[in-house]
Design goal:
The protein is of the alpha+beta class and 663 residues long. It has 25 helices and 17 strands. The strands form 6 sheets. The protein has a 4-stranded mixed sheet with strand order 2-1-4-5, with no helix packed on it. Strands 8-9-3-10 form a 4-stranded antiparallel sheet, sandwiched between helices. It has a 3-stranded antiparallel sheet with strand order 11-12-13. Helix 4 packs across helix 7, helix 23 runs antiparallel to helix 24 and helix 23 packs across helix 25. The longest helix is centred in the middle third of the chain and has 21 residues. The protein is globular.
Length: 663
Amino acid sequence: MNEKSKDRILKDNKNRHAEYYGMQAVFDELYKKSNEGKKFKHLTRIITSKDNILLAYRNIKRNKGSYTPSVDRITIETIERMSQDQLLKNIENRFNNYQPSKVRRKEIPKPNGKTRPLGIPSLWDRLIQQCILQVLEPICEAKFNTRSYGFRPNRSAEHAIADANFKINQTNLMYVVDVDIQGFFDEVNHGKLMRQLWTLGIQDKQLLVILRKILKAPIQLEDGTIVNPTKGTPQGGILSPILANVNLNEFDWWISDQWETAKTRHSFKYKNKEGRTGRDNRALKKTKLKPMYMVRYADDFKIFTATRSNAEKIFKAVQMWLEERLKLPISKEKSKVTNLKKQKSEFLGFTLKATKKGKTKTSATKYVVETHMSPKAIKTAKAKLAEQIKKIQKTPNSSNCIKEIAKYNSMIIGIHNYYEIATHVNLDLKRVGYDLQKQMYNRFPKSKPNNKYTNGFTRYGEYRGKDKGIAKYTKRENNYIRYLMKSPILHLADIRNKNPMMKRNAINKYTEEGRKLIHRNLTNVSETELKWLREHPILIGRATVEYNDNRLSLYVAQNGKCSVTGEQLDLLDMRCHHKIPWHITHDDSYQNLTLIKSEVHKLLHATKSATIRALLKRLNLNKKAIEKLDKLRVLVGNNCINEKENNLDIFNNEVRYEQLTLF
């Protein structure tokens, strides 16, 4: 895959996690059978399997939502202290007679002054939903339409914008139909959704009963009132996005079958220079069918067509179809038909408009898409950054100030990463950036770096540090970079435009060929080794589910080698060592663990000179290994080993292990 053809892929660590727990082959088989049109009547056995439950824990344990308590006040910190057996038995018992807990409703403010309801299920329900999601996703992915981009693996808003741009630039479809579904997530019809799942091949009745219970879980409002929903999928639930896509998938295919995948006597397929399979639509153009293409991201979609008369007919047909078939209400005020040559159309925080660009060989005017940040997106970004500037001002000359500056910089980077695909994003952010600079000038004390370089920046704003990632968000010879507490503050206007990339159809997390385009296969660690580790968890002592999960990750990260000696680990003779002792921190996190040989572990805790000499002679460590060993010894409260003095005797190290940084 050369540089030009590389796709900008969303990193999905869950691909790796499925391989760690031996579930990837199971998911691949589900995807393959779904593609073949098979029915699934025994999915509950896969959902409640040991490896699937542990994979679910692994996938949600670092999500922000896992630290947000629901009505029962339980967070992931409670569950990660359990043993592996306790977690498995608890989940299995809940599945046997599943009754969901109450969902906590929280109102999230929107930029327009209104609020959006967010449902926060209990953590046990989140784990159960994650177990179900992992099995449903490969089945549904095989049936979903390619023009759907929201809440799907290895798809993003960038792909949706790229597809919309392609429709304007290449297919010359200048009329766009916008139909706004009013409160979509709160309006999904439960009965219709259950029938759609059955049609997709999910025919496990026990699973469908559980899904219906999840949809009807009681909701506790902020004032304590309990509501029993009769429709909708609560936003915030792990299953809500995929169920929403299932609900709209029927609509996707209805639009697609009107033109893009309309059945014809002959296929009229061809391959272009890039190897993409296309379709010759000349035969279709001779029919009375109306050319139309849809691009959808969650409940936000656009239908592109060639003429106003077609657009008006599509507009009416779509409203009727959504109201009659899916029982979804339509917002008349926000729904409209737009001529992109004359007006702008908003989509995912961007505005799209077709503008003239030169002439073609046939003397016809050529139109290309021009994209901007939407006015609402600009206003929201400015308000959030201005508020963060005030927070920085309120924490002068303190460590919190540096944290707030880092947060401000991360907000700038987030805006750049999302909106850099707009063709005129530089113009959109230039004025806003200037206003924010004036605000900082008035609120911050004047501060310049004392040294020639501060955190990699010169005093003129040019970045010459080692972190190549941050260089992307700065411009050369930029003399308006501000400093506070010797920390540079990134400028909003320092943004570089890039072209949005279309999703490559070959990318697929449920096929071996598709995964090669996402990440390399595990080569240094075999499936046999991973299987042994899964089947032989540490059960003695205070071993928790978090401890065993991180033990598996460390084995892969260290390529099955000792972190001190670099030698291959013997699965029967290795130790998962706490860098800072567990009795001090009760910390089973990944950063506090390392895998080492058992003899190295003895050497870490040895205090007698004779024992240390005997172990050193047996291990025959080099200088680099001894340096690593010394760092670990200091962290557990022992002295370093001096290789140069007194023939490997112990010398006193006065550095307290609490003050050292973990490595």
